[in-house]
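Reviewer comment 2.1 asked that we show a complete input and output for one of the modelled complexes. We chose the alpha-D-galactopyranose case, as it is the one discussed in the main text.
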Amino acid sequence: MRTTQNKTLPLVLLFAGSMLFAGRAAAQDVTIPVETQHNAIVLQTDAEKHLNMVYLGTKLANSAEYARISKMYRQADDSGVQNDVYTPSGSASLGEPAITVTHADGNKSLNLVYVNHTVSKVSDDVSLLVVTMKDPVYDFEVKLYYKTYYKEDVTEQWSVIKHNEKGVVTLNKYASANLNLKGNTPGGFWLKQYHGNWAMEVQPEEARLTHGIKTIDSKLGTRANLYEHSMFAISMDKPATEDEGKVLYGALEWSGNFRVDFELDVANNLKIIAGINNAASEYHLKPGVEFTTPAFLYTYSDHGKGDASRKLQSWARQYKIVDGNGSRLTLLNNWESTYFDFNESKLAGLLKDTKKLGVDLFLLDDGWFGNNHPRNGDNAGLGDWQENKQKLPNGISSLVKEAQANGVKFGIWIEPEMVNPASDLYKAHPDWVIKQPNRPEKYFRNQLVLDLANPKVQDFVFGVVDNLFTKNPDLAYIKWDCNAVIYNAYSAYLKKDQSHIYVDYVNGLYNVLKRVRAKYPKVPLMLCSGGGGRVDYGALQYFTEYWPSDNTDPLERVFIQWEYSFFYPAITSSNHVTDWGKQPIKYRVDVAMMGKLGFDIVIGKLSEDELAFCQSALKNYDGLKDAIWHGDQYRLASPWDNDVASIMYVNTDKSKAVMFNYLVNNRYGSGTKVPVRLKGLDPNKKYRVKEINIFPGRGSVLGNDDQTFTGDFLMNVGINPKTNASHTSVVLQLEAI
Ligand code: GLA
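Response of the prediction step:
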């Protein structure tokens, strides 16, 4: 990250720790390039000391030229073109605001002018730019934070808002970031966005943005991503492909209501404003108190969506998710094999099956708790986190021991933010429940949400996790679920500040998760929300993995996992082999292997061959998991456009790779007819290609020919994985020799 004031500032200051430029702005325009390995965003003051974002794109070879960029454009004037770095409302800027306030005196006008900025280095790779802006009339300040990850080309941007007015100021809108993309894109801007529903997560749509404002948002409170996601891609000029085109990826790190506005102005500039959704959420800010918005995450690539996604995946592994460079546990889950219907002897059998299958851990799902209101269905028991004495007379601790006796680990499902009206908790603490005092209760999956704005509720939720680990120190895994949205938003705790509920809920949740991580830094936690209702980096910074969807039909999962992978690395994607769909076990296992592999099937129902296949696939997975979890992912053929979807993962030194091929079209003659070109290999290395995960009794699709090729050949000519109606999924392993 570097800073220049009209070319005069010596570059020595570049990484000189914390620097302050207060008071020098009046004399000259200030130009602040924020550079990463390949990209730059450039901020610059104008004659009125407004700070504008004048550039976002490939970084220039000669950084002195950044100062000249704005002269190429018509300046902000009555043409309606504005580039404010954080658009205030009620003064000179008339576009969609990033921030709207009501001052202590009732006035609604905000003007923000540049005061100073500092740049500091957090590490060799990470820098932090902080820009301070103030209102010349009101004692009101906004600091913009840009945390840049140089090698990964990723930026996290957020704002901190503060004032010293004589009374409370209401924040009516308070975005995290406001980007401006210049209109020198003759083909316009193309938005790729995601919508979905239960079992239909991350459905993509891509379209050219028209003038005016397009908004994607959520008002669901919890399970905020159930219908829409804050993650998106903006392509410039034309939709970027996997390997070509200019594309910006963005997402809000926030597990609650979000709002992203895309405003295309009269000069074809695109303003992107991302933040917490301000709907029904005015925030009352006392003098001297700081309000910190969540980070908006973005990366840019001029080499297409594949490059952008590898940057995000690598960033997430290095900096965001828990133990991103570490290991994960394969597992057997009992949800689909038993649902709520189990007891100790059934579980003892499943623990034996866990060992027999060859996975690391048994995960006990929903249904283990509640006594006065036993959890025998989804209509009772949530909130009463004591073992059900009928099902588990000897408690969780005996199961943990039993697991150990079988040489496997034990994990458990919880949904600690929720309560069923049929529970002791609901009766003991009705004031802990989010519900309107004077309206009938409205349930989602027969349950209500606990009020995490209330510190006592935070203690309770933390206690659910802490008690489990305290009583069972060998407990090795938790699946944290969240199955309801917030209806009838009202917090008995917040009293007059009801409009804080959505924000304080999420911050309350993060307080709990911070406490969990402070005490249990590395224990694997799966983030689940009735499927992928809550997949975002705000939450994922506390989790090791997420549950993409309850839809485990592998045909559907090819598409779902494909789309999530643009934002999230494979190591975070929990993929379970279940009985959903009509595909053979081989196809189901092959699809689940492109992430963190797990099983949720009745092992006893597998034929001898099927079991042997699963066991040997797990061994293959063991040899390849380093490439899948920590390597680079390349999308070779999209399931949306081809009969066969092909994806590969290459480990860091390019000595090992795996290529997954899945038939996704069952029409006559569908299959791979031509070779698929591989990516990411070393052209000079020789690779031995071998089909793995071959079902007992079948031969390799590759036949008996010599299967040793140079990376050069494999990337320019390709290899035919011969995936078709008789071989619906094919996994090829590549090893450098
Ligand atoms: C949610 C989860 C499922 C399962 C059930 C249990 O739907 O997504 O995987 O855990 O809850 O009730």
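The radius of gyration is 27 Å. We note this here for comparison with the apo prediction described in Section 3.2.
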